[in-house]
Inverse folding.
């Protein structure tokens, strides 16, 4: 299962590598309100279509930063009776971690900074970039 919208490019790259029978499902959560920092507790915007009871779940995420969103999803999947849950993230930013969450599989560990592209957005834009870029502010404070 993937967390929308950021997981779409990553899932698109890996789905044909999964050789077992599977059901693809998605959940949408949001803690960002058009900004670059989380705006509180993540809320479920769209829930899963399928029941995870007694299922092995591979949870696919674009980036783990604070860990707050993914922790909520991990806890929810366990509450719903998933047989097992493994976490795969494209990017891991441990320097931003606020809760204890560790991915089972990490493609790349990244340093502090705001990233865009390959599913990562800024104000719901730039997700379509075919690469990941570090966004630098032009603010003169």
């Amino acid at each position: 299962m993937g967390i929308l919208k950021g997981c779409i490019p990553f899932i698109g790259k890996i789905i044909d590598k999964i050789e077992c029978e599977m059901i693809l499902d998605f959940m949408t959560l949001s803690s960002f309100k058009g900004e670059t920092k989380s705006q509180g507790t993540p809320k479920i915007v769209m829930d899963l279509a399928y029941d995870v009871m007694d299922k092995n779940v591979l949870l696919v995420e674009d980036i783990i930063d604070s860990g707050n969103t993914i922790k909520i999803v991990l806890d929810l999947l366990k509450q719903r009776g998933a047989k097992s849950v493994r976490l795969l993230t494209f990017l891991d930013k441990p320097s931003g971690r606020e809760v204890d969450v560790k991915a089972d599989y990490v493609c790349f560990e990244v340093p502090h900074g705001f990233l865009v592209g390959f599913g990562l957005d800024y104000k719901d834009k730039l997700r379509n970039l075919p690469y990941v870029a570090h966004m630098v502010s032009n603010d003169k404070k």
